[in-house]
Amino acid sequence: MKDQLELMLKEAEQEIALCSNPNDILNTKAKYLGKKSALNSLYSRMKELSAEERPAFGNQLNLVRARIESLITERGNAIKEASWAKKAVVFDSSMPGMPLDRGGYHPLSIVRREIDEVFLSMGFEIAEAFDIEDEFHNFDALNTPQDHPSRNLADTFYVEGGKLLRTQTSTVQIRVMESYKPPIRIISPGRCYRNDKPDPSHSPVFHQVEALVVDKGISMSDLQDTLQNFAAIMFGPNVKSRIRPHFFPFTEPSAEMDISCVVCGGSGCRVCKQSGWLEMGGAGMVDPAVFDILGIDSEIYTGFAFGLGIERIAMLKYNIPDMRILFENDLRMLRQFKGEM
Ligand code: PHE
Fold first, then answer.
1. Which domain holds residue 12?
2. In testing the pocket of ligand 1, which one of 148, 170, 256, 306 has its CB within 8 Å of the most ligand atoms?
3. Do 247 and 117 belong together in one domain?
4. 2, 34, 188, 297: which is deepest, by most CB within 10 A?
């Protein structure tokens, strides 16, 4: 058995030296180290030896195996290097390069930047706060009753430590009024989270832009002016806007904001469901109860706030029929926006 082993090693050494490509290496490796190799069968034949001979022979087998392994690795590396060297020689620096695919902005980013620009031009500043919030900033300070349905587990994602993923950017109203004294004039674009099933107009993650203005003598007509200015810059000078009575716990009075349908111009179509109007978000005058919680004197100051849905605006601007398209990141969709901004 010893002789057999030595013979096999010699044979292996010669064959490895003759390997000239990666395939040879693979075959040789299988032949000398694989399951059906002579080496392997010598391992199983060890039981024919006496108990005294066995350890020494086992040792020898291991040594031979290690030797073959290292020879094969060495030869394999040498072959690889030689082939790289060959390729380097044929590299032609005068050949045209590979075309580089340039990235572009996501439609939500494009629209968000446009919204920022519009409000910056009106004298607003941009505020940012946290996606992970506490109940105080998402509900309590926004005057939301303990039994309000939006607090339900079925609607709000709660995380560890009594925190939650904010369901609205209105949290930023509170954060800003905690830290700054009026006059305040901010917008805050950002992500919101609600436990909604994805469908053409819902997504568990979506974006809002919050606006908050607090000063002496702010009235509902300032809210309407701001909305109208925004709509005209964003969608064109012929777009009209309106507000309708609604309810939010943190505004009084509260309203919903509409703009005239940007697809049909108000005459009624599929997009506006024949109503001529498109809903843009919620709004209202800051409820004095909110000012009280934050120690702002509601006898001196008034304010308005609103929250717009960014997906809605992007879908209208880019004629995107289903909100889910905005979150799938299909390259065929994203490529259409290349080069903008
Ligand atoms: N936060 C409200 C929502 O998500 C919208 C809103 C913002 C309403 C500001 C009034 C004032 O529905």
1. 2-87
2. 170
3. yes
4. 188
